[in-house]
Amino acid sequence: MTAPGRGVELREVPDPSAREGEILVRPLLVGVCGTDLELVDATIDPAYVVYPLVLGHEWVGALGHDVPGLGAAGDHVVVEGIVPCGHCVACLAGDTNRCDTYDEIGFTRQGALADLVSVPVVLAHRLNDAVPLEDAVLAEPMAVVWRALTRLPIGSGARVAIIGDGTIALLAAHLVRALAPRSVTVIGRRPEQADLARTMGADAFVLSPPEGTFDLVIEAAGVAEATATAIGLAERGATIALLGLPPHGSTVELGPDDLVNKDLVLQGSFSYTRRAWAEVVTRLNDRTLRPSPLVTHRFAMDAVDDALATLRGRRDGAAPRGKVVIDVRAPVTRA
Ligand SMILES: [Zn+2]
Ligand SMILES: [Zn+2]
């Protein structure tokens, strides 16, 4: 992206060089998401972007060279996107998602939609050879979901409702399985997502809020009204986790007495911590997390526009849509 609002182009640029504390990684698969659309559309807060920008913050790559203590050239790695300063109060407490300084690969640093990218070595996590790339490419959104779940007092046997049928909602269904719930109900809007939701761990997929109440309600649709829906679905004493990000400035009417009378916890969660990444990588490496069925679309580097159009829902009609990925290694055929 050369400038805000000018779309994307495929261009030859000089290879990056690794600065002190950095390593070179060859991206293999790169996922795209709604935040990338906001970057392309220039609807994101400009304070969080530096142009020209190479997109790509959800990705798996191969080490470009031997890295002592991490792995050999060609070994697969996933890399945290947020580059924490390491010395502010939030960083020292482990809350790297709230670092005073905002710096993130694919936003203020060149992202992974490239042959080669330079990243801080401390942010790279080595993957076992057995981990499929389609699982690994979902590490970043899984870290977002995992960080939210690990803040919550979720007992085993919980009845869980998830509002939303996009990638974050379906990853939430997959990750919440690790917490031994009694049931997982996904409340979506697109009937074509039903099979995908069940594959990812949902017991039920419904198109309108069901009867009954839930011990944990996860809002992952990113629309303001869903917060009110979530409160309505909550059992007394339940926790409501807000994972979706509604448009800035959107509002919703709530009955605060419900929060009091029902003894509810309303919990937000922003991005991920370094610890959430480490825990997700551990579970990828031991194969407890296997989210790859969520990857439904794959494009070559010269078809990024098609990938973005797919992400906008303009191409498939009523086909299910999970994660859209770019295969950086796929042959580029267009001039
Ligand atoms: Zn993303
Ligand atoms: Zn910091």
Written description of the protein model:
With 335 residues, this protein is α/β, with parallel strands linked by helices. The chain has two domains: 22-143 and 272-327, Alpha-Beta Complex (Quinone Oxidoreductase, Chain A, domain 1), CATH 3.90.180.10; 152-268, NAD(P)-binding Rossmann-like Domain (Rossmann fold, 3-Layer(aba) Sandwich), CATH 3.40.50.720. It contains ten helices and 13 strands. It has helices at 34-41, 89-92, 133-136, 139-149, 167-176, 194-200, 225-233, 256-261, 274-285, 304-311; strands at residues 22-32, 58-63, 76-79, 117-120, 124-126, 159-163, 183-187, 204-206, 214-219, 234-242, 265-268, 295-300, 323-327. The strands form two sheets. Strands 1, 2, 3, 4, 5, 12 and 13 form a seven-stranded mixed sheet that branches. A six-stranded parallel sheet has the order 8-7-6-9-10-11, sandwiched between helices. Helix 6 links the parallel strand 7 (183-187) and strand 8 (204-206). Helix 4 crosses helix 5 (167-176) and helix 4 (139-149) crosses helix 9. The longest helix is centred in the last third of the chain and has 12 residues, at 274-285. The mean pLDDT is 94. The structure holds zinc ion (ZN) (2 copies). The site of one zinc ion has 8 residues, from helix 2.
Keywords:
2 domains, Rossmann fold, 13 strands, 335 residues, 6-stranded parallel beta sheet, 7-stranded mixed beta sheet, binds zinc ion, Quinone Oxidoreductase, Chain A, domain 1
